[in-house]
Amino acid sequence: PMRKSGGLDPRVVLLLCFISSAACNTFAFTEEPSDRAVKADSYCSRILRAQSNRKEVNNEFRLRVEGDPESYQPGSTYRVSLTASSPSYFRGFTLIATREGAEGDRDEDYAGNFQIIDEEETQFMTNCPPAVTESTPRRRTSIQVFWTAPPSGTGCVLLKASIVQKRIIYFQDEGALTKRMCEKDSTDRPLLDCCACGTAKYRVTFYGNWSEKIHPKDYPRRANHWSALIGASHSKNYVLWEYGGTASEGVKQVAELGSPVKMEEEIRQKGDDVLTVIKMKAQWPAWQPLNVRAAPSAEFSVDRTRHLMSFLTMMGPSPDWNVGLSAEDLCTKECGWAQKVVQDLIPWDAGTDGGVSYESPNKPTLPQDKIRPLTSLDHPQSPFYDPEGGAITPVARVMVERIARKGEQCNIVPDNVDDIVADIAQEEKEEDDTPETCIYSNWSPWSACSSATCEKGKRMRQRMLKAQLDLSVPCPHTQDFEPCMGPGCSDEDASTCMMSEWITWSPCSASCGTGTRSRERYVKQFPDDGSVCTLPTEETENCVVNEDCLPSSCLVTEWAEWDVCSATCGLGMKRRERMVKMPPADGSICGAEVLEVEKCMMPECHTIPCLLTPWSEWSDCSVTCGKGLRTRQRILKSPAELGECTEELEQVEKCMLPECPIDCSLSEWTEWSECNKSCGKGHTIRTRIVKLEPQFGGDPCSQTVQRKKCKVRRCTRGQGNSEEKRRRKEQREKQRGKQGRYLLCCRMRPWSSWTECTKLCGGGIQERLMSIKQKFKTVQLSSCKDRKEIRACNVHPC
């Protein structure tokens, strides 16, 4: 039997424990040992079948998949968040993903895999491993995890959440705590017609996350890059690329060569099916910190008939691997234009080359395979190989943001403040048709808002006309306006409490081990309707200054506040310090960090406007073959008395031409070998090795073996007198004259096999023999004797 705690029915307490570990920790109760064992295989199904009284309408909590997709791409990874709208919060939760209609009794009922982002916030449930729950029991307003979609063929999936708030449980079976997603199949699902009105303008930004740190296996350090990005906004009648489709010649040239020329030609040939061609330049290297170089971006427009957006860019070097979006629909079912789309990208195979690694040799696939996403089980030599078949870590992220709308809109869902402000700001920006002949000062800071309350007002800034280079052309726009609200107001909480900023955290309550610290804020303005303000004014969290206080430990103080940023505008650095309170008792060096430095970003730096000519065309590549550089310039047109212009006047980028010819490279000759005869006439050889084979049409290799005659001493032959020597000499001369006839008087055996090389490396010698099979009358002829050949072997370096 269970004992009640706090007057709560023990059955409710047990139900709370099913839903959340935090809820279980909130109440103290005990069970008889015989009742403790709970099988994990049934625990998950009990969570799914749990029921409770709940509010009929509950909009306080929301389960959301980033980008709000209606379908999932098999194997893709999505960010899943669970949020509470202010002033609500939750203490515990459970998050689980199942096949639609599944009971949760079998392993196959659970779809995909969750991945923990913050171990201090979330963990896998002990008794139900597929589910995620909280790590620590405390108030929270949001959590995030990653979810990798299941493989193809799974069908529809339900992401479900349960929320514990005090002693109330909000279940997952309906409403905003359930997210239904079905498998994406672009080949079977027809694209819906767009019902939106007017046009919309978007900015697409590409973030390359392909780096040696994140994808270390076989990472190509020297040549890694993203090719020039190419794409378009288009109608449903045109397909740039799609999973299950066949790559066009344009897609093939992007995938294999990184060249967008043919792809752009194909896009422009589609006429009215294309509204905007999307282009970004190549990125060398593939990954760069954003504080060194801004992520590349491009702008494009969509309308009712051309509301889809597609693009691709090659991972280089690779056989035919790319990333991109295919027919991303920016028209919503509410007849509006999507405000923001963010997607993590995994590489896909164009089906034109059969290579399995980044730098595999060319291996054309004939006939072409279908376009397909790469998987972690494709090939053991693949850089993305995982024997357990896990999801591939995304190599890039793309963000598509709406920056303006034009024309009359007909969206069913009313615009929010963000929509209105974005459109107003863009309209003013686009209408700023300031001529190049007008030179202005920097804009002044924004004025105070015309509204001191949370009602909408306006604020203004000004600039001064410094020079008018052409008096016949007027210089407009010396004032600028934008919407605003009073101090402390926010769009979301205009009808609730206005709170101050949080005051600095108090010191940690413990100098060793885990302690607590708190901070406070106060109510600046109560709700207009006179209701009580329920937002928390105090917040407490755990803190650790020193892990432990052993004699061997180095004890430090808490971190001081951050210093002011080193820059007054743009990117700077800030630092903070702490002190060593007590060094280790054993005299060792204290390893604790006492200084922290991080980047800080101040408002954008403004300089005097520069009047510049357009960029010139790119120069020819600085080399005739291989990798080189090319440049382009522009000229400063504004007068020097206006001040120094800090804009760059020259740009340099890398260029690639066909590889340069590489000639054969040989080592130095070895010393001459010993003579192959101990007496009489013989020969000696010397060798050299090929250090580098000729490539790309370079000069071929010359000889690697040389042979010359040698004579050590005359051989001694018997006791023959001078008369016999003379007679033999005459006989040899007579035989030489008849050599052609005598050659027919002996028959030779075939050449023997070559002997083993005298050295394993560095240049050795092999021999083979041809012996006499049959001699006729002219056996004395020197041409009818055994023959021997010598050649060099194993000339490669040791």
UniProtKB/TrEMBL annotation:
Domain Spondin residues, every copy: 190-383
Keywords: Cell adhesion, Disulfide bond, Extracellular matrix, Glycoprotein, Metal-binding, Repeat, Secreted, Signal
Superkingdom to which the source organism belongs: Eukaryota
Domain Reelin: residue ranges: 29-194
InterPro entries the record matches: Reeler_dom, Reeler_sf, Spondin/Thrombospondin_T1, Spondin_N, Spondin_N_sf, TSP1_rpt, TSP1_rpt_sf, TSP1_spondin_dom
Region forming the signal peptide: 1-24
GO terms assigned for molecular function: metal ion binding
One Pfam family recorded for the sequence: TSP1_spondin
Protein name: Spondin-1
Source species: Nothobranchius furzeri
